[in-house]
Specification:
mainly alpha, 102 residues, globular
Length: 102
């Protein structure tokens, strides 16, 4: 299993990046409030979910993460994990099925 990495960015720098991608003050306040509740340490999956709630597109979120220093493989894996969590949350469980064609 890969070792978890920590990416650090100042509040001001994050604000600057997010404003560049179109977030307004109300959205920024809500995002920073959520991050404060998490003691300013948020895993990437939660961070992506928070950004999606602001209305940012996946393309914009990808660009934000690149600006934070994440590589494309890490971003792709994180986006896949977000999608998997969303599917699990909707269905309540993971389905396993086999289809035989004979």
């Amino acid at each position: 299993m890969a070792e978890a990495k920590t990416y650090t960015i100042s509040r001001q720098e994050l604000r600057h990046v997010l404003v560049a991608f179109g977030l307004d003050e109300k959205e920024l306040a809500a995002l920073f409030s959520s991050m404060e509740k998490a003691h300013r340490h948020v895993n990437i999956i939660s961070f992506i979910s928070m950004l999606e709630k602001t209305g940012l597109s996946r393309e914009s979120i990808t660009n934000v993460l690149r600006r934070l220093g994440l590589d494309d493989l890490t971003i792709s894996d994180a986006m896949s994990s977000v999608d998997e969590q969303r599917i699990i949350a909707r269905t309540g469980r993971v389905y396993e099925a086999t289809i035989d064609f004979g």
